[in-house]
Design goal:
Strand content: over 45%
CATH class of the largest domain: Mainly Beta
Radius of gyration: 31 Å
Number of domains: 2
Number of helices: 1
Keywords: Cell membrane, Cell projection, Cytoplasmic vesicle, Endosome, Glycoprotein, Membrane, Signal, Synapse, Transmembrane, Transmembrane helix
Order of helices and strands: EEEEEEEEEEEEEEH
Domain Lysosome-associated membrane glycoprotein 2-like luminal: 14-184
Function: Plays a role in short-term synaptic plasticity in a subset of GABAergic neurons in the brain.
Protein name: Lysosome-associated membrane glycoprotein 5
Shape: extended
Distance between the termini: 104 Å
Subcellular location: Cell projection, Dendrite; Cell projection, Growth cone membrane; Cytoplasmic vesicle, Secretory vesicle, Synaptic vesicle membrane; Early endosome membrane
CATH topology of the largest domain: Porin
Length: 251
């Protein structure tokens, strides 16, 4: 038996949502992210002859209804809001593959489907031929993560979807993502995170100046130490006079 919970109220960020799917009283899918859709749509120009393209910015609402499905190799998360005017369906796939290190498994976001209604007036104003449309991904392979780990990415990512509305391009903006659709170790507990390449690069850019600063400081300390030792050794050596006439005064 599968249960679903919208825990978005627990997030300190009002734009970030938290969703949980549970099976047999334990978590089998958990997702945290902020999401927004940029949807182009047609309206009449002022002359009522020409069409112009407007843009709707549609955030994922905190009150979204949630459905979910967990499986060994396939999982799914479905979210609906504003009386089902908008529905987002995320499909995940886990698969094995051979590498030079031997067989390995990973999971990925394999499909996105976003259904929207241009007759809904909160985000769409005077759309031409209002009605429902579906925007979908094509051969998607996103958020690729080693099996048994969660995916984490604070940076914003943009995924393009193709709409049934004259093949318009709908943009999904995802940020502050922490997600795991398989192999969750304990109830409400993510596995070790796998950071996205953008976050890894930003982390390196943040730590690199500190590392270089420490190396430079260490080089300076070593150089000063060598100079100090060399100076002491030089000062303690007996100065042998070069003028031979001074030898008779020695001894």
């Amino acid at each position: 038996e599968q249960e679903v919970e919208n825990l978005s109220g627990l997030s300190p960020n009002p734009e970030k949502d938290i969703f949980v799917v549970r099976e047999n009283r334990t978590t089998c899918l958990m997702a945290e992210f902020a999401a927004k859709f940029i949807v182009p749509y047609d309206v009449w120009a002022s002359n009522y002859v020409d069409l112009i393209t407007e843009q709707a910015d549609i955030p994922l609402s905190r009150g979204a209804e949630i459905k979910g499905k967990c499986g060994t190799n396939e999982s799914e998360l479905e979210l609906s809001w504003l009386d089902q005017a908008y529905t987002l369906k995320l499909s995940f796939l886990k698969e094995g593959h051979n590498t030079s290190r031997g067989p390995e498994a990973s999971w990925r976001l394999s499909r996105i489907q976003f259904t929207y209604d241009t007759s809904e007036r909160t985000y769409f104003k005077d759309a031409v031929s209002p009605g429902k449309h579906t925007a979908s991904s094509h051969r998607l392979s996103a958020l690729v993560t080693p099996a048994g780990r969660s995916y984490e990415c604070q940076a914003q990512q943009t995924i393009s979807l193709v709409s049934s509305d004259h093949q318009k391009s709908v943009q999904l903006l995802l940020s502050e993502v922490r997600l795991q659709p398989f192999d969750i170790p304990a109830d409400f507990v993510f596995s070790e995170e796998h950071k996205c390449p953008v976050d890894q690069r930003e982390q390196l850019e943040e730590t690199l100046p500190l590392i270089l600063g420490l190396i430079l400081g260490l080089v300076i300390v070593i150089t000063l130490g060598i100079y100090h030792v060399h100076h002491k050794l030089t000062a303690s050596q007996v100065q042998i006079p070069r003028d031979r006439s001074q030898y008779k005064h020695m001894g």
